[in-house]
């Protein structure tokens, strides 16, 4: 899955929040800040875990404000060994 999250999502601990919840659900992939102020998340995992993860991302950490979540489902390529924060 690919998510683009917009709102007040940078400089509020969002990437660390995402990484924590991805690891708890055995989701592999990455999260990164984009130059346009959004957050990009790529994740692979079991459907149930992905759905729970998306719900957490829609909420975000306390200091954030999620305005929208654009979703795109893609075929899992199993190219990620872990979940990490990209710079």
Word description of this protein:
This protein is of the alpha+beta class and 87 residues long. It is built from two helices and five strands, in the order βαββαββ. Strand 2 and strand 3 (39-44) form a beta hairpin. Helix 1 packs antiparallel against helix 2. The protein is globular, with a radius of gyration of 12 Å. The mean pLDDT is 95.
Structural class: alpha+beta
Number of strands: 5
Instruction: Tell me the fraction of residues in β-strands, as a range.
Output: 35-45%
The strands making up the biggest β-sheet line up spatially as 4-1-3-2-5
Please give the alpha-carbon distance between the first and last residues: 20 Å
Shape: globular
CA-atom Rg in angstroms? 12 Å
* Helical residue percent band: 25-40%
Number of helices: 2
Largest sheet: 5 strands, mixed
Question: Which stretches of 5+ consecutive residues score pLDDT under 50?
Answer: none
Following the backbone from N to C, one meets helices and strands in this order, namely: EHEEHEE
Mean pLDDT: 95
Topology record:
Layout: E1 2-8, H1 14-24, E2 28-33, E3 39-44, H2 47-59, E4 65-72, E5 83-86
Parallel strand pairs: 2-5
Antiparallel strand pairs: 1-3, 1-4, 2-3
Give a brief outline of the structure.
This protein is α+β, with helices and mostly antiparallel strands and about 90 residues long. It contains 2 helices and 5 strands, in the order E-H-E-E-H-E-E.
Labels describing this entry:
single chain; 87 residues; alpha+beta; 5-stranded mixed beta sheet; 5 strands; 28% helix; globular
